[in-house]
Amino acid sequence: MGPILEISGLTIKAGDRPLVSNLDLVIERGERWGVIGESGSGKSLTALASIGLLPSALSAHGKIMLDGQPVLDLPERALTQLRGRAASVVFQEPLTALDPLMRLGRQTAEPVARRLRREGKPADRKAVEAEVLALFERVALPEPARIARAYPFEISGGQRQRVAIAMALACQPQLLIADEPTTALDVTTQAEILALMKDVVADMGMALLFISHDLAVVNSIAEKIVVMRNGEIVETGAAQAVLSRPEHAYTTALLAAATKFEDALEGRP
């Protein structure tokens, strides 16, 4: 079947200014990858390009194959059909990703109905509502029926992120892209969301592309790591090897900074 995502020679520009340069990345089905690097390193742009969601002001060149389909050459209608089925995204701040004027059950119902129709199954109101509640239970939301009736502002940040994950899972994608999904959460909720994502990815046999600037977070969920700086990949490999025996000076600097920050938090000299 080939890789779920294959990126070759990807260059992203704003006018004549390169933001990502000649990037190569292959994610096999079922693999868990982490992408780390400082803000502005090109992590999120690479993820957005992989599903055809780059802002119109940016241009992308190279080759991106998502589930065997050439993303950069597809019309928007074909991309819309590919998204959800092949890949879904969980964004950093669910309060802005979710529609504030729509009940959460209704928002989740749309991708659920789309999947049921694709599979040739009944997509009537009763069937869709049952699927929505099952998804909310799967992501450990308390009182799924109440959450389904609620608006985004009526629940907590951790619960909103669980709803966002449920929506991303609604179409049963083969690749889940998580773009700093725990940054806006407190430490306890962050750990719960990470455990949840690791669970559902394993249970559903999905591949994962997890984007973060937090080395500890990436190490807890990814099998392989890409380190990016200034729009380029500077190091890649097995997570344990990269984080314990870095080969590039930038990776070494990131690890040193992370250790210094942890020492400061713990009050160690």
UniProtKB/TrEMBL annotation:
Its main location: membrane. The keyword Lipoprotein does not apply. It comes from Aquamicrobium aerolatum DSM 21857. It holds the Pfam family ABC_tran. GO terms for molecular function: ATP binding; ATP hydrolysis activity. It is a peripheral membrane protein. This is ABC-type dipeptide/oligopeptide/nickel transport system, ATPase component. Belongs to the ABC transporter superfamily. One of its GO terms (cellular component) is plasma membrane. Residues 5-255 form the ABC transporter domain. CDD domains: ABC_NikE_OppD_transporters. It is found in: Cell inner membrane. The keyword Membrane applies. InterPro entries: AAA+_ATPase (IPR003593), ABC_Ni/Peptide_Import (IPR050388), ABC_transporter-like_ATP-bd (IPR003439), ABC_transporter-like_CS (IPR017871), P-loop_NTPase (IPR027417). SUPFAM superfamilies: P-loop containing nucleoside triphosphate hydrolases. Keywords: ATP-binding, Cell inner membrane, Cell membrane, Membrane, Nucleotide-binding, Translocase, Transport.
